[in-house]
Amino acid sequence: xxxxxxxxxxxxxxxxxxxxxxxxxxxxxxxxxxxxxxxxxxxxxxxxxxxxxxxxxxxxxxxxxxxxxxxxxxxxxxxxxxxxxxxxxxxxxxxxxxxxxxxxxxxxxxxxxxxxxxxxxxxxxxxxxxxxxxxxxxxxxxxxxxxxxxxxxxx
Length: 155
Description:
Layout: H1 4-23, H2 33-41, H3 45-52, H4 56-68, H5 73-82, H6 97-122, H7 129-146
Helix pairs in contact: 3-4, 6-7
C-alpha cells in the first residue's frame, strides 16, 4: 500500500512533468513579455503608464529590466493586470522528473564506482570500461530505489 507521502510525491511529479511539456512551447519573445503584450494590444507605453500611475519612462524601464532579468514578480503581476492579462511564473524541469533523479543517481554511482576502481587500479585489478559502466548503472538503480538521505548531496 502506498503512503500518503508517496501519493503526494507522484502528484507533484505529474504536475511538474505536465508543466514541463507545456513550458517547452513557450519562448520569451525577443522584446520580452511586457513589450510584446503591450504591442499586441496596441497599447502605447503612455496608456499603460497612466493605468499604473507611473511615467512612460517607468514602462520603458520595466521592459528593459524584464529583458535583463531584473524586474520583480510583483511588478510583472501589476503590469499584467494593467494590460488585462495575468502573470504566470513557474519552475519546471528541463525534462522529466525521473530523468533528473536518474542523472543524480548516476552521478553519485559514478563517484562511488570511480573511487573503488581507483583503489583496484593501485592493485592492478581495475575493471574494463564496459564493466565499470554496468556497475554504475546497477548502483544508480539501487540508489534510486533506496533514495538515501544524502541523495541530492553533490558527489
